[in-house]
Every structure is written in C-alpha cells, then in structure tokens.
C-alpha cells in the first residue's frame, strides 16, 4: 500500500499467536456474518492511511496461513512461537524496522486478533484523533474503559524492547513513564473481544444476518 502522499506512515500490528484455549477451537477462523473473525479485522484495518498490516502467528498455524493467503498483509511465523503478546509485538516491530526504516514521525497501532467488530468507520475516526494527538501514545476508551487499538509513536518501539521479561505492554505506562492520551469515543466495539464460546454465541446472534 503506497503512503507517498502523507507525511507519516502508520503500521498495524496484530498479535495472533494465542492457542484459543478458552474457546476450544481456532477462534480467528470462526465465522461472523459473511466473514471470519480475522477477515473482519483485516478488512477494518484495510485503510489507505495504514501502510502495512503485520500479523504474528505460531509457526505451526497452517490453517491461519492458508486462510490469509492472497490478503494484503504480512504474516510472520517465527521459528520459536512467541510466549506472549509483548514478544509478538517485538517481532513485528523488528520486521517493520528492517523493511521500512520508520522515522520519528511514523507510528504503529496494536490490536489483538480477537477483536472482530472493529470496522473501518471506527478505525478512521480513531486515526483522525491520532492525527491531532501530541502524545506518544493514545488509547481509546468507552465510558472510561480502555479498549483497542492503541496508537504509538515509532519512538515507543524502543521502549517495548526495554521491557523486562516479566513485563507486558501495559508496563509501558505503569513503569516506563509513558503517559498515554485516553481518547474517549462513542464506540463500544473497542471493548469487544472474543475469548469464550459464550462470547462467540453473543456476537454470532448480533452479526448472523449481516451482509
């Protein structure tokens, strides 16, 4: 995706190396409406202001690899499976650095793969807020609750690599003096993830007739 007409680039990082233990099946390949969970998320992120979508998955996840074939994204399946989201993010950031050499004006957003109801309109509005944001990090909130995606300046990528083994991404603002802007928005979709069969049944009822 070309990004030559704008002064900065934005990269979307999707950690997708989980085992779906609570769901009991590969939740990213479950169907909502006319698409799978991961297809919906990728479509929501397929905007002209996103330079590249990077998905990090397990090495042996052949089903996901086959499912994503032909889609406009970069799938990374490292030799060693990421043990947590932080390591998945580090892998994606390293790939982006190697292939795009981002500058200080560039940024990245983080969205777990199991957020299936984020659509393009929500992403677009959050991006507009990010364009006007002067902070190094922006986290959307709905009625005071933090959601996804979180937006970061490229400079924060260096802090991600400084996290201790026992620290997760949340430690960036708990222990590393990064003060995110909490951007209140009217979209409950930023809070909705997919962890259990009950979550899936609830969402399936809402989106079964969607086209």
Structure description:
With 211 residues, the chain is of the alpha/beta class. It has a single domain, classed as Alpha-Beta Complex (Spore Coat Polysaccharide Biosynthesis Protein SpsA, Chain A), CATH 3.90.550. Helix content is 31%, strand content 19%. It contains seven helices and ten strands. The protein has helices at residues 37-45, 62-68, 85-100, 120-131, 156-161, 171-174, 197-207; strands at residues 10-16, 31-32, 35-36, 52-57, 74-76, 107-110, 137-142, 145-146, 150-153, 181-184. The strands form two sheets. Strands 1, 4, 5, 6, 7, 8, 9 and 10 form an eight-stranded mixed sheet that branches. Residues 1-6 have low confidence and may be disordered.
Could you give a short description of this structure?
This protein has about 210 residues and is an alpha/beta fold. The protein has helices spanning about 35-45, 60-70, 85-100, 120-130, 155-160, 170-175, 195-205, and strands spanning about 10-15, 30, 35, 50-55, 75, 105-110, 135-140, 145, 150-155, 180-185.
Radius of gyration (CA) equals 16 Å
Helix vs. strand class:
alpha/beta
Low-confidence stretches: 1-6
Question: How many structural units, i.e. domains?
Answer: 1
> Looking at CATH, which topology would you report?
Spore Coat Polysaccharide Biosynthesis Protein SpsA, Chain A
Q: What is the beta-strand fraction?
A: 15-25%
- The CATH H-level superfamily is Spore Coat Polysaccharide Biosynthesis Protein SpsA, Chain A
Helix content: 25-40%
* Total beta strand runs: 10
Order of helices and strands: EEEHEHEHEHEEEHHEH
Shape: globular
Number of helices: 7
**What is the C-level CATH assignment?**
Alpha Beta
Question: What CATH architecture label applies?
Answer: Alpha-Beta Complex
The major pleated sheet works out as: 8 strands, mixed
Amino-to-carboxy terminus distance = 26 Å
Mean pLDDT over all positions: 90
